[in-house]
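Reviewer comment 2.1 asked that we show a complete input and output for one of the modelled complexes. We chose the adenosine-5'-triphosphate case, as it is the one discussed in the main text.
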Amino acid sequence: MRLRSLTLRDFRNIPLARLEFTGRQQFFLGANGQGKTNLLEAAGFLTALRSFRAADNRVLIRHGQAAAAIVCELEHERRGDTKITVKIAPTGKELWCDQERVARLADYVGQFPTVVFSSQDLQLVRGTPTGRRRWLDLTLAAMDGAYLRALQNYTRAVAERNALLKRGGSEAELSAFEQTIAPAAADLVQRRTEGVAALAAEVAAAYSRVADGAEPATIGYEPNSAEATAAGWLERLAKGRARDRQFRSTLSGPHRDEVALSVQGRAAREFASEGQQRSLVLALRLAQAAWFHARSGVRPVLLADDVLGELDPARRRRFWSAVDGEAQVLATGTSLPAADLGAWEVFAVKDGEFGEDLGAGA
Ligand SMILES: Nc1ncnc2c1ncn2[C@@H]1O[C@H](COP(=O)(O)OP(=O)(O)OP(=O)(O)O)[C@@H](O)[C@H]1O
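Response of the prediction step:
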């Protein structure tokens, strides 16, 4: 898909911006703290109606204002020309697609894919398993409504079971939640097994391009416990009750799974060099984009937040050659991108205001 225009009102530090995009490469140029990432955050919000960097939507509303709005006109492989309107208020969000109110957000999620490349992504390799699980969940849930439902059911029921464990609930009460947890856990393990196997091929291919075939990189699914059936999970949960009561928390299950990342057969977190780690996170994002495209037929818009300038010239060139040449790219930076990255429509960003093409010849 391609974004043709983006209008923001009271989004973060942006009072009002109406941007028209003509080509497929837009660059947002400005000093630190001016609103570049805010703009990408708004574009990314269209995918799953959540921010890629904030858990609470309230922080997206400009200080002192009642609500924020995003309006986007885009070309879409399946839907044709589409207009999306999102209103974000402290009480919740509202959504319209072509003037029609979308009540069931599950019907919407995944239709308008974007993939964010951010300097924070190094945490995917260096940080805790939580970040890698979130990457996997967002990737799989965006293309698979059944995965999203299993994840929601599972997460909710585990939270309820944990609350019970904390207040010393009865065996019967625990058992009631386990009836929901068990089938969802079996479903998640199966879908994660299949999903990671498919994504592993994409990651290996993307890494080989970004790192110039220097060494192989792999991702692997390491379930905390690989029960294949709901009956198996029921038994495991029942057996674990005494220990879980002691720790006041559900100790085993897919909420403790790991997505193992390795370079040349060794754990990337401990053994990969900084350059290899950077290549690996780029490969994870490229794989995510390829997966979205393959599964849905819709080409995701790529949102590159200050990453092009961070890469050394050789890696940048290789990364760029690995990017889908037909995809729209919205990128930010404090200086213009190198000439080998093609022709950009440049917007200067200052204090939440956007000026078109100011940077192009400057
Ligand atoms: N809800 C809000 N209301 C008003 N201003 C906000 C809000 N949230 C963030 N800001 C402001 O937005 C600015 C940050 O913008 P942004 O994160 O887009 O920076 P950036 O241009 O990407 O800079 P960098 O290059 O440092 O990443 C800060 O000045 C911050 O105070």
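The first helix runs from residue 36 to 48. We note this here for comparison with the apo prediction described in Section 3.2.
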